[in-house]
Amino acid sequence: MTIKILVALAASTTLFAGAAFADGHTADWPESFTIGTGSQGGTYFGYGSGWGGIVSEATGVSGGAEVTGGPMQNMSLVHAGDLAFGMTTMGPAAESIAGNNPIAPGLQMTGACAMFPMYQTPFSITALSSSGIESIADIPAGAKIGFGPAGSTSDTYFPRMMEELGVDFERRNGGWSDLGGQLQDGLLDVIAFAAGVPVPAVSQLEVQTDVNIIEFTEEEQAKITAAFPVAQFDIAADTYQTLEAPARSVSMWNFAIANCDLPESFVFEVVNAVMSDNERMVATHKAARSTLPEFWDRNTVMKWHPGAAKWFMENAGADIPADMIHGG
């Protein structure tokens, strides 16, 4: 089940309403739009609500953010046209396009197109200070680890990473806010987050109790980057009150996605609203510091929506091959 959170008045989530709009809006623009995000307490939900509001104001089309299971489900919903927009990471996007999305095994989800770069998702581990867990090696055998919502980027990749590093664990799933509460109540030993930083659930935890934000060793980082589609990343010291120095991590890029059949002119204006005012985006969520035009080339797996490709080629000097643009 999904929960819709409105960021502007929306009467419908129909993609193609065919209504006429004033101020130059074309007749084939949707009457409203919905963005697939993630769980409440996670970065996707806060970030998606933020850019949804900016787009609504810029285009005059009302929009809302919807709580979902995260990247895998968003690929499925946007591909099918059940949602106009969503957010995903490169790993789940590649698996979905290849037909390996667990929601619909064998279905190649090519109806979801790249729209704009969002930010890198660091993989980070949090435990209560009282647990004595200060490193990955300290995680005891059989530890109960919360990996986020089922099918999320975290749930898809972090268990595999822990297995690669020799950690023996019991897998738990849930929304980030719920898992944070379970950690605080002693029902979990560790939470393995894959989310843009600062993760709201971690920020809330460190206000209420003492936590350890556990970094990868250089050897662990090298092992993970060799085995998975991630890159080296440092979580800045000023991200959390708990950190006194940058924390070594790995990360995966996130992209906003659009149903490939949305009107080109509409998607062009959506991208323009988000990419033309980074200061405003950062005001909605700090993770948007990386929501910059020059990172267009971080998409290596999805075809671009024609409206998005047009914006990046005209405004960011993007050299996007025709065969990487939907319909090209």
From TrEMBL:
It holds the Pfam family NMT1_3. Keywords: Signal. InterPro entries: TRAP_TAXI. The keyword Signal applies. Residues 1-22 form the signal peptide. The keyword Cell membrane does not apply. It comes from the Bacteria. This is TAXI family TRAP transporter solute-binding subunit.
